[in-house]
Amino acid sequence: MTVPMIDLANALKARAAVSADDVLAIRRVVWPDGKLDASEADAIFALNDAITDPPVEWVDFLVEAMTAFVVRQQAPTGYVDEANAAWLMARIDADGRVESRAELELLVKILEVAVNVPDALKAYALRQIEVAVTQGTGPTRRGALDPGSINATEVALLRRMLFAAAGDGPACISRAEAELLFRLKAATKDAANAPEWKTLFVQAVGNHLMAHSDYHPLSRERATELDAFMRDNRVNIGGLLGRIAEKMVQGGLGEALRARPATPDHDAAVADDRAITDDEAAWLRTQIDADGALDDFEQALLNFIADESGRAAF
Q1: How many Cβ atoms sit within 10 Å of the Cβ of residue 175?
Q2: 144: part of which helix (H) or strand (E)?
Q3: Average pLDDT rounded to a whole number, residues 126-138
Q4: Is residue 145 classed as helix, strand or coil in its secondary structure?
Q5: pLDDT value at residue 57
Q6: Which helix (H) or strand (E) holds 139?
Q7: What φ, ψ does residue 292 adopt, rounded to 5°?
Q8: Confidence class of residue 256 from pLDDT cuts 50, 70 and 90?
Q9: Which of 121, 154, 265, 306 could form a disulfide with 117, with the two C-beta atoms 3.0–4.6 Å apart?
């Protein structure tokens, strides 16, 4: 399907526009085999760069196709490797901007559906969302970006990015994400922001300081090992048992079973994480003192911490 797809993309690129019927034609060419190859993916991105006002049908297709190419087509499914992450960042940067309706949505969607992605892609996504929220203009799939302030659309976009499964802090807010929120607050301090923004700021920074999570996604390397093991369908009972024992030893399971450590007290772990450590208190004070004044967002955060922990942060 490569040649028909590239020919169709080139024809549409010359027009710098696509219609809903054009997107349907592309789907019919691309999806019969359920996969994209690298040249087709490049052609689709080149067409996206050329489109001046992409319709929602195109955005849906781009997000669907690129998510499949980057996240699902390579074993182990759900993991983005270094090569695909580098390709994606290069393609998004090719036209010198993140197109809000399609490419920004694609970045967020990949982090939502992937199990894990390289750290470079996580950091790149955070940079792009910061630029989009503070400087971006134009429509998204769920509203428009408003430079200089944070509107409800941007709050929703931030929330999706911050709590994405493959984000910088899966199941919790990382230090980098919390510092991003403080920068966004400072950049839009006197703007007419959506009321949802203050709620997200308090909840997310509070999550960074006080949340407990037992979730730690496997690395792609470890997931690849397990995927290969499960795909090995050779009929050899002795070999199977031997491989299971080998994997148990490699993973430390045998040693763990012999040691029989005490079962951790989950409630105690949650309580420990809810308490503000000296390091966290020092970091929070630095963030609050950065502009020399305690604003209402920061006061709301301190009140939230006191209510949740039963004591002041510092």
Answers
A1: 13
A2: strand 143-145
A3: 87
A4: strand
A5: 93
A6: strand 138-140
A7: 75, 10
A8: very low
A9: 121
162-165 long-range Cβ contacts below 8 angstroms, 24+ apart: 162/200, 162/204, 164/108, 164/111, 164/112, 165/111, 165/112, 165/113, 165/114, 165/115, 165/217
| Residues 141 and 244 sit within 8 Å (Cβ to Cβ) | no
CA distance 99 to 103: 5
Contact criterion met (CB below 8 Å) for 48 and 62: yes
Q: Is 217 left (phi over 0), alpha (psi -120 to 50) or beta?
A: beta
Angle between helices 296-309 and 195-210 (to 10 degrees): 40
Positive or negative CA dihedral for 194, 199, 204, 206? positive
pLDDT digits (tens, 9 = 90+) for 139-164: 777 778 888 899 999 999 999 999 99
Give the whole-angstrom CA distance, residue 74 versus residue 71.
7
The reported pLDDT for the residue numbered 267 is 62
DSSP letters, 66-125, are HHIIIIISSSSTTB--HHHHHHHHHHHHTTTS--IIIIIHHHHHHHHH-SB--HHHHHHH
Cα 226 from chain centroid (whole Å): 24
Other beta carbons less than 10 A from residue 194's beta carbon: 18
- Using CA atoms, how far apart are residues 19 and 17, in angstroms rounded to an integer? 7
Mean pLDDT of 124-131: 92
Is the full-model pTM beyond 0.85?
no
The two structure tokens encoding residue 304: 């939230």
Q: Beta 138-140 vs 143-145: how paired, if at all?
A: antiparallel
| Phi, psi for residue 85 in degrees, rounded to 5 | -65, -45
Query: Which tokens is 9 given?
Result: 């993309």
Q: Is the peptide bond before 76 cis (omega within 30 degrees of 0)?
A: yes
